[in-house]
Amino acid sequence: MLRQLTGQAKKHAKLIPLFVFIGTGGTGAALFLLHLALFNPDVCWDRKNNPEPWNKLGPNDQYKFYSVNVDYSKLKKEGTDF
Questions:
Q1: CA separation (Å) from 82 to 11, 16, 21, 56, 57?
Q2: The model scores a pTM over 0.90
Q3: How far apart are CA 26 and CA 22, in angstroms?
């Protein structure tokens, strides 16, 4: 399949940017899914040792990928501990 892609790229040089952008988009999507699977508190891979990891997050923990106007270091906890 790689040989076919390089053959098409040699014949039609205008397709090279298309291959680059599609490859970059696919790689970015795969990396973002990997980030969500490993660092999202809603995903639980180990049910025995930590069945509810979202309960152990403090108010200062940033769990969003990007936050626009929130400074997590200055937040205080509201409510009771469970």
A1: 65, 56, 47, 10, 12
A2: no
A3: 6
